[in-house]
Amino acid sequence: MVPQGESQFGQIIRSIDAGYLTGPDTSGLETLSKEEALSNLRELEKKGLCHTIWTFITPFIGGICNCDRSDCVAMRTTVTMDFPVMFRAEYVAEVNPDLCNGCRQCMRVCQFGAMGYGIAHEKVVIDPRRCYGCGICRASCTKNAIALNDRSKVPLAANLW
Ligand code: SF4
Ligand code: SF4
Predict the structure, then answer these.
(1) From the CA of 142, which ligand is nearest?
(2) Do the beta carbons of residue 60 and residue 17 sit within 8 Å?
(3) pLDDT digits over 5-25, tens only?
(4) Residue 125, SS3?
(5) In this structure, how many other beta carbons lie within 10 angstroms of the beta carbon of residue 74?
(6) 124 CA: nearest ligand 1 atom
(7) Which ligand lies nearest to the CA atom of residue 78 in the structure?
(8) pTM score
(9) Is 147 or 83 the better-scoring residue by pLDDT?
(10) 92 - beta bridge partners?
(11) 93 CB within 6 A, ligand 2
(12) What pLDDT, on the 0 to 100 scale, is given for residue 102?
């Protein structure tokens, strides 16, 4: 019930979920150091799992997820239904053909269908229009043949989010 005479500002303040003021109940959660968290992320990368950041109400970060397309509804919706529900990263991946040996390991982990294999020159190529800049391909390449470039400097992808 709205108290009589309450200002609009007061009504807005009262309507805010108290959880935003005090923070969530984290008593049941495990706390990781920065180094432990990064180490976990690196291990997950080796398994080909893609890191995504989820904001439950922007700009509040609700979690960092590590997933692949078989389990992630958002990735499936974005890639297989061509209905984007995720933003891309600020990067676009590029293969250095001089270092690539054509092993195709990177293609196995790309969740966004951005990579193709050129039979003629036996190298992998990346379509910048499909790349989400997640960097999982780079983590999987033992030849260090994949770089992440600044999206704003890649004309084909600069305005794709
Ligand atoms: S993993 Fe590296 S070396 Fe292998 S195909 Fe991909 S870019 Fe080339
Ligand atoms: S950075 Fe681009 S090409 Fe590499 S795995 Fe992610 S979406 Fe695929």
Answers:
(1) 1
(2) no
(3) 778 777 777 776 666 667 667
(4) strand
(5) 15
(6) 5
(7) 2
(8) 0.80
(9) 147
(10) 149
(11) yes
(12) 96
- For residue 113 the two structure tokens come to 């269908």
What is the average pLDDT score of the chain? 88
Residue 88 CA neighbour count, 13 Å, CB half: 24
Which one, of 149, 140, 131, 147, lies nearest residue 78 by Cα?
131
Name the amino acid, one letter, at 84: P
C-alpha distances (whole Å) from 59 to each of 31, 36, 44, 81, 133 are: 22, 25, 25, 27, 21
* Per-residue model confidence (pLDDT) at position 35: 97
Tell which atom from ligand 2 comes closest to the C-alpha of 115. 3
Query: Is residue 98 pLDDT above 80, yes or no?
Result: yes
Look at 14 and 145; give whichever has higher pLDDT: 145
- The residue nearest atom 1 of ligand 1, judged by CA position, is 141
**134 CA closest ligand 2 atom index:** 6
Q: Which of the 8 DSSP states describes residue 9?
A: H
The CB of 134 under 6 Å from ligand 2? The reply is yes
Residue 21: its pLDDT value, please? Answer: 66
For residue 54, the CA-to-ligand 1 centroid distance in Å is 29
Give the pLDDT confidence score for residue 4 in this predicted structure: 72
Distance (Å, rounded) from C-alpha 82 to C-alpha 158?
A: 19
